[in-house]
Amino acid sequence: MNLAAVFDEHAPGLWRYLARQAGATAAEDLVAETFLAAWQQRADYRAELGSLRAWLYGIATNLLRRHHRTQAQQTRMAERLAGQRAEAEDGHDRTAERLDARTHLRQLAAAIAALSDGDREVLLLSSLAGLESREIAVALGIPEGTVRSRMHRVRRTLRATLPAVKGES
Fold first, then answer.
1. CA 31, CA 144: separation in Å to the nearest integer?
2. pTM of the model
3. From first to last of its 169 residues, what are the pLDDT tens digits of the chain?
4. Are 29 and 19 within 8 A, CB to CB?
5. Which of 58, 118, 122, 132 is most enclosed, with most CB atoms within 10 A?
6. Spatial distance between the Cα atoms of 133 and 163, rounded to a whole number of angstroms
């Protein structure tokens, strides 16, 4: 495995995937950690099980999970230390249109957040990383049929959210 060539080919896509979920600075660190982990686990990679790209996205997804857990713990700790919970945004100075858009976005974000971890990971690997069902299956270590089933469930759940969002306008 020529790590430099693999990095040149896959780092930009991994960075975009991770930056959309964790921010640009964290994405840089997560990409570096992904390639470090890939190098350390290079003996475990089996080309017959799936593409190198899918394997790298699997590593990145696991690191992203850990990053989100750490961020959530740090946020809870900061809130406790400050003695207060984050307050809801005050929207009284906003126009009705912007408020509606934010409300709709929150509803959609809440629907995505309410998905199971597995369903959300399949959605994000598909929509943000552009992976195909087979690659997602390899990345998450699950059967391809499970990926398709999860995507169907995600689409059905999000479609059920969208009419409510559209109906409030």
1. 25
2. 0.56
3. 688 898 999 999 999 999 998 899 999 999 999 999 999 998 888 888 888 998 999 999 999 989 888 888 777 777 676 654 444 444 444 455 556 666 777 777 888 888 898 998 998 888 888 889 999 999 899 999 999 999 999 999 888 877 655 555 4
4. no
5. 122
6. 27
Rounded Cα distance between 104 and 23, Å, is: 22
Joined together, the tokens standing for residue 77 give 């700790």
What distance in Å separates the CA atoms of residue 2 and residue 22, rounded to the nearest whole number? 28
Amino acid type, 22: A
Q: How many CA atoms lie within 13 A of 162 on its CB side?
A: 6
Give me the DSSP letters along 43-87.
GG--GGGS-HHHHHHHHHHHHHHHHHHHHHHHHHHHHHHHTSPPP
Q: Which amino acid is at 88?
A: A
